[in-house]
């Protein structure tokens, strides 16, 4: 398991690699590498390479490539490319390992890099600048690209823009030398006005897309049909009666697709738990679970679905929950991983 952190806090130095015991939920530190604000990381499908978004401003936003040694867990720096967009906050690679796509939050843009045979990143191939704004004058004065996710069939990529209340949809053409991302026939889907799209989760067949909206702490459910996203349901993350500030962050489906989880920071610091209808993909609220800390910016479910780990950024630890596969409910294992400002958790089978 890899953990990305914010290093500007002075509490951490970069990326941390752990052995994670799927039987007990215990984590043992294997290695670490210095990296500048690696706030989001991804691992190639063959687990040989790691790519990290270096969330910096003032023209210093970058993406870094590392080789990952399966035996030792050691990360070896390969190279770094500037994203030409400030505050890159998300990075993803396609299943075949041909490109890396970086979302630039402050820059409001997407950067696409080819992956070289040795895992390093080539010169940027494509930069897509978003335009527009949203109704919230404080948060949506311009585009804020927050994430990009490939569809399960790898034919499309969904790009969430908090600033414009849109999921921008692109066709993916990895063979293209200049424009691997091309606006789709249905180029975008709207979120709720002022919702602030952040991350999505997708059913394994790609029929349903679940969007977490940062500013309203609502989950919007879409039905996907030939690349068009149709909204079919919107449900709240917070418990009834909650009146504090929101900062909804991450969203994930359980490996079996039966339960969905979404985190909210702000004054809530909880995970919402939903059961997913196999008939129509809609959600039924099961309950809320305290994250036992503050600032759940990211969380991850172990590949076997037995554990859910929450990166509590503001309390400098990862909290390990055991997950009931029948009910979706979570129980505190008592296990903690102490790390400064953890903001991204990624499992990799070595």
From TrEMBL:
Entry keyword Transferase: no
Entries under Gene3D superfamilies matching the protein: YVTN repeat-like/Quinoprotein amine dehydrogenase
Keywords: Carbohydrate metabolism, Glucose metabolism
A Pfam family the protein falls into: Lactonase
PANTHER family membership: 6-PHOSPHOGLUCONOLACTONASE (PTHR30344:SF1), 6-PHOSPHOGLUCONOLACTONASE-RELATED (PTHR30344)
Family under the similarity heading: Belongs to the cycloisomerase 2 family.
Protein name: Lactonase family protein
